[in-house]
Design brief:
The chain is mainly α and about 375 residues long. The chain is built from 14 helices and four strands. The protein folds into two domains: about 240 residues, no CATH class; about 120 residues, 3-Layer(aba) Sandwich (abc type-2 transporter like fold). The two termini are about 20 Å apart.
Length: about 375
C-alpha cells in the first residue's frame, strides 16, 4: 500500500511537470471546456436565408412569403424575378434555398384545386435542409387548413366542423429531454465523454512512454508491477474525478443542457470508465513505446471511436460484427450509460448492463497493464 501511494505521488508530479502530458491532461481539457461548446450555444439554426421567386404576385402569395419570413427558422433574404437568378445565388453560397410560388396559385386555391409550391434547399448541409423544408412544409399545411376552413364556412358548414375537417388528427410534438429541440443538448453530453476519453488516453500514453527516473531509484525497487500500475491509476483517478465533475456536472449547468441525474450516479459510471480508459492508455504505451506513435495512434482511432459510439450515426445502422467489436472501446458503453443517467434521468439499475461491461473492460485492461508492466520490469532486471 505504501508503495502504491509513493507511485501515486510521483505520477501526480509527473502530470504537472512533464510538458506533453500537462498539455493534454490539463491545458487541452481547459481549452476544450471553453471553446468546444461555443458553436452550439445557439442550440438551433435560426433565420436561414433563402430566395423567393413569386410568379403569382397575388395577395395570397405575398401573405405566404411574409409569414414564412416571420418564422424563426427561415428568412426571405432576396426576392428575385426568376429561378435562374435565384440558382446563381445558391451556387454562390450566399443563399441556401429557393421558394418558388407558381403562377395562378391564388386562382387554383379559390377554385379548390391543388396549388403546389416548390422549395429547393441545400441538402449538402442536412441541418439547413431540414430547417428550410420543415418551415415551408409547416406553413403550407397551416395555410392550406385555413383556406379550406374558410371555404367550408362560406358553404355554411358549422365552424367547429369546418375547423376540424382539414386537420382531423392534429399532432402535438413534445421534445422530451430536449425542450429547445437544440443541437447542443443532443451533441454536447456525448461529445464531452468522448473528449475525456481521448485526452486521458493520449495523456496516459505519453506518460507511459517517457522514462520515470524516480522509479529507477533503488529505494523503490521493492514496488512490484501491481503497486506501480495501481499507483499510476490512483493518480489518474484523482485528476479525472475533478475533470469529470467540471465536464459532466458544471459545463451542462453553465450551457443550459438539461441534467436529471445525481452526481453520485454519474460518479458511479465515471469510475469504471476512468479505470478502463487509463488502463487502456497504459497498455498502448507499453505496446508502442514511442510518444509520437502513441499520439498518431490515438489521433487515428479518434474518428472511428466517434462513429462507433452510436450518437453521431445510429448504432442500428452499424453492421453487427462492428457493433460487437465496438464494445471493447470504453466510450461506446460509457456514452450511453452517462447520457441515460445524467440527461434522461435513468436509475443505475436501468444501466446495470453498461456498468457490468465497463467493469469488465476495466478489469481486463488493468490485468493486461499489470502483465505488461511485469514483463517490462523483468527485461530491465528489476
Amino acid at each position: 500500500m505504501s508503495g502504491m501511494l509513493v507511485v501515486c505521488g510521483i505520477e501526480l508530479r509527473r502530470i504537472f511537470s512533464l510538458r506533453p502530458a500537462f498539455s493534454v491532461l490539463v491545458l487541452a481539457i481547459v481549452i476544450y471546456a471553453v471553446f468546444y461548446p461555443q458553436p452550439y450555444r445557439a442550440e438551433a439554426l435560426r433565420d436561414v436565408p433563402i430566395a423567393l421567386v413569386d410568379l403569382d404576385g397575388t395577395d395570397t402569395s405575398r401573405t405566404f412569403a411574409r409569414r414564412l419570413d416571420a418564422s424563426a427558422d427561415v428568412a426571405v433574404a432576396a426576392v428575385l424575378p426568376d429561378q435562374v437568378t435565384a440558382e446563381r445565388e445558391v451556387f454562390a453560397r450566399s443563399l441556401y434555398g429557393i421558394l418558388v410560388i407558381p403562377k395562378y396559385l391564388e386562382r387554383d386555391l379559390l377554385h379548390g384545386r391543388i396549388a403546389p409550391v416548390a422549395i429547393y434547399a441545400d441538402a449538402s448541409y442536412f441541418l439547413i435542409y431540414s430547417r428550410i423544408s420543415g418551415a415551408v412544409s409547416a406553413l403550407a399545411r397551416t395555410m392550406g387548413a385555413e383556406i379550406e376552413t374558410s371555404r367550408l364556412i362560406t358553404a355554411h358548414v358549422d365552424p367547429v366542423i369546418a375547423a376540424a375537417a382539414p386537420d382531423p388528427m392534429p399532432l402535438t410534438a413534445i421534445p422530451l429531454f430536449n425542450p429547445q429541440g437544440g443541437y447542443a443538448t443532443y451533441i454536447l453530453p456525448a461529445a464531452l465523454v468522448l473528449i475525456l476519453q481521448q485526452t486521458l488516453l493520449i495523456g496516459v500514453g505519453l506518460l507511459g512512454t517517457h522514462e520515470n527516473p524516480e522509479l529507477a531509484d533503488p529505494r523503490h525497487a521493492h514496488i512490484g508491477p501491481v503497486g506501480r500500475v495501481l499507483g499510476r491509476l490512483a493518480a489518474y483517478i484523482i485528476l479525472e474525478l475533478v475533470v469529470f465533475s467540471s465536464y459532466l456536472i458544471v459545463l451542462p449547468y453553465l450551457y443550459g443542457v438539461p441534467r436529471l441525474g445525481t452526481p453520485a450516479a454519474i460518479y458511479a459510471i465515471a469510475l469504471p470508465y476512468i479505470v478502463a480508459v487509463a488502463a487502456l492508455g497504459m497498455v498502448i504505451a507499453r505496446l508502442f513505446k514511442s510518444p509520437i506513435v502513441v499520439q498518431l495512434v490515438a489521433a487515428a482511432i479518434g474518428m472511428p471511436f466517434l462513429f462507433l459510439s452510436g450518437f453521431s450515426w445510429p448504432s442500428d445502422a452499424i453492421p453487427e460484427p462492428v457493433r460487437s467489436l465496438a464494445i471493447v472501446i470504453p466510450s461506446t458503453t460509457a456514452i450511453n450509460a452517462i447520457v441515460n443517467v445524467a440527461q434522461l434521468g435513468a436509475l443505475l439499475s436501468d444501466v446495470r448492463p453498461h456498468l457490468l461491461v465497463l467493469s469488465a473492460l476495466a478489469a481486463v485492461y488493468l490485468g493486461v497493464a499489470i502483465l505488461l508492466e511485469a514483463l517490462s520490469m523483468r527485461r530491465q532486471g528489476q
